[in-house]
Amino acid sequence: MIYCWSLVAGRWSLVAGRWSLVAGRWSLVAGRWSLVAGRWSLVAGRWSLVAGRWSLVAGRWSLVWQHKIILL
């Protein structure tokens, strides 16, 4: 009887080990995709910052030109 329970426990342990392995692989894949997404987000953030700076400069030049036209 003890042998039977040991066999059942061994099988459940094997199944749990396989599921743990599968979960570990999926976690690794998800981690890689998360890293890739994080890098793209960083790149997008930098481009957004650059675009924001250029927009600010353009807005200042537009304001200067409008002020000059009003004075003329």
Task: Compile the SSE list and pairings.
Blueprint: H1 2-71
Structure description:
With 72 residues, the chain is mainly α. It has one helix and no strands. The protein has one helix at 2-71. The longest helix has 70 residues, at 2-71. It is rod-shaped and about 105 Å long.
Beta-strand residue fraction: under 5%
Give the biggest sheet.
none
* Helical stretch tally: 1
- Element-by-element helix/strand order: H
Q: Unreliable stretches, pLDDT < 50, 5 or more residues?
A: none
> What is the average of the pLDDT values?
90
Structural features:
single chain, 72 residues, mainly alpha
Provide a short characterization of the protein structure.
This protein has 1 helix and no strands. It has 72 residues and is an all-alpha fold.
